[in-house]
Amino acid sequence: MSRLPVISKKRVLTTSSSSSENGQDLAPAQKKTRKDPERVKPYAASTIIGTRRPAVAAIKAPISRPVRPTGAATVAAGPSRGVLKQSIASTAPRGSNIKAAAAPTGTTAVTGGAAGTKRQGWDLKGKVTDMESKLRNYQTKVKSVNQENKDLKSMMVKSQTRVTDLETSVAVQRSQISEYEEELQALSGVREELDKVSSEKSTIAKQLSNLEDKYKVMETLRQSQETELHTLKMKLSMQESTLSRLQLTLRDAEEEVRSLGETVVQQKGELHAGEMERRQLHNSIQELKGNIRVFCRVRPLTGGGLSQHLQLPATDNKTITLAKTQESHTGKTADTQKNYNFSFDRVFGPQASQKEVFEEISLLVQSALDGYNVCCFAYGQTGSGKTFTMEGAEYDEARGVIPRAVTQIFRAAEKLGAQGWEFTFTASFVEIYNETLRDLLYTGKASKRPEHEIRKSINNEVTITSLTYEKVTNEDQVLGLIMMANHNRSTAQTSQNDRSSRSHSVFQLDIEGANVGRDVKCKSTLCLVDLAGSERLLKSQSQGERFKEMTAINSSLSNLGIVITALANKDIHVPYRNSKLTYLLQGCLGGNSKTLMFVNISPELDSFGETLNSLRFASKVNDCVIGTASANKK
Ligand SMILES: Nc1ncnc2c1ncn2[C@@H]1O[C@H](COP(=O)(O)OP(=O)(O)OP(=O)(O)O)[C@@H](O)[C@H]1O
């Protein structure tokens, strides 16, 4: 169906009402419409086309191309009413307006004639002619419009095709755009990753630079170490050459050492033989001297000066004379002097030093290491110097027999160690008071102090039950134990005045030696005894506890004399068990031992009686010859 404008008043009115948008242009046409409403139709048709296809026109507008030289431009400009009017104007090139176009050849004159002249009412023919002329004009005009309409349709089809193409193209482009957008989106992720990678790259670059710095430092270090290594290699090669020289020297020295070793072995054998010979000779000398010897020692006077009743011959150091001046009973005769002469193995005067005294007994102490039992005891009245002789004082020169003997024993043991001897020493220190034994090395509570008994084993070894037997390895340890014993003794003394004077103290050092290489062993005991004061009190003068003490002391000391006499007489029965002292010293007295007795005497005149008694007792002992000692060798 044609979309050409239908000539109707309704359409015209519609156009007219919309013309208000462009009233300026339409105003002349409206003026004409009052005179000739038919002339408005072409404009109305154009207007309708423009208003019904605005979208196509809008799409066409940017890409419009002339479809044909004339008329097509008019359609393309459809949306604009102003342009449409121009287009309409341009569609009538053959006339300057529709009126002219509607007046083909031959009618122009008539029209002009009619327009110029008004037909008379009666000129009906003329009026018909005019009407026919008008009709023809209108037909021509319709034809022209139809043609134009046809062209426009064709243009529209083309335009629609074009629009479809363009829509397709737009769709394609949109899809491309969306693809681009997706790509862009993907690229934004890549950008983030790129940023991350670049940040990592900068970090790695920093690390690399750090590593480079470190590498430089390490390189410098390596170079210095290489230099050092080179120096060391030089030194090493020098030392290697020195070493090879030294190795040669060492080989020579080893050879020399080997030959010297052989010599040493040979000399050791000779030494051992010499040592054994020395022991034999030493023992022979001791035997010749007697297995029991008595040394007398005179204490200096307390106030200084010389004793009048004691005489010690200057040329002789073995005799002592105790002189007593007896007043004349009548007073008419001169006073008489009675001399008591005694001789002993050695007599030490008041000036004799501790060192001098010890030198005389050191050979005896040596015998203890050779495997002989040795017993040394000090006998004498209270205050005669027994403790001074046995223990001495703290300072070096005043050291007595016990510390000096200990020193000698350990030094000699050390020397014998070079000949393959190994020794073990066990020390004990016991006190005998009122026939009761007391451990002087006890360190426990006083309330738990144990009681002790003397026991004798099958092989005649005497031991004390519950006594402290302390293993010692050096001199200082032993001296420490002696100090402890003295402390224990003095503690007991505070409760009983002068207790030490009335008790015997016995220090024993058990010695065991072995020469593994030569399969020789020896065992002995060194026994050093500080006896209780030997003074005798008249029975009438002593009472109670004191009497009991004195009885015990006298009993043990007299038993000591009895035992020594029995040994001297080679009695079958020796009454060792009669007192704790003799029972304890059993191992150190008798055939298998060497005994030394110190008889200490006080130089004071008022001690004359006790001195005489002591010298008599000692003399009796001195007369004894006890068997022949034999070393405890295995
Ligand atoms: N040879 C000596 N040289 C110097 N002083 C001595 C000598 N002998 C003993 N004395 C001194 O005499 C005093 C008594 O000596 P000591 O205590 O040794 O006698 P004691 O016989 O052991 O007496 P007690 O039986 O009471 O123990 C002490 O002061 C001691 O120092």
Automatic annotation (TrEMBL):
InterPro entries hit by this protein: Kinesin-like_fam (IPR027640), Kinesin_motor_CS (IPR019821), Kinesin_motor_dom (IPR001752), Kinesin_motor_dom_sf (IPR036961), P-loop_NTPase (IPR027417)
Domain Kinesin motor: 291-624
GO cellular component: microtubule
Polar residues bias locations: 13-23
Main localization, broad class: cytoplasm
Family: Belongs to the TRAFAC class myosin-kinesin ATPase superfamily. Kinesin family. KIN-14 subfamily.
Name of the protein this chain belongs to: Kinesin-like protein
Organism: Gymnodraco acuticeps
Gene: kifc1
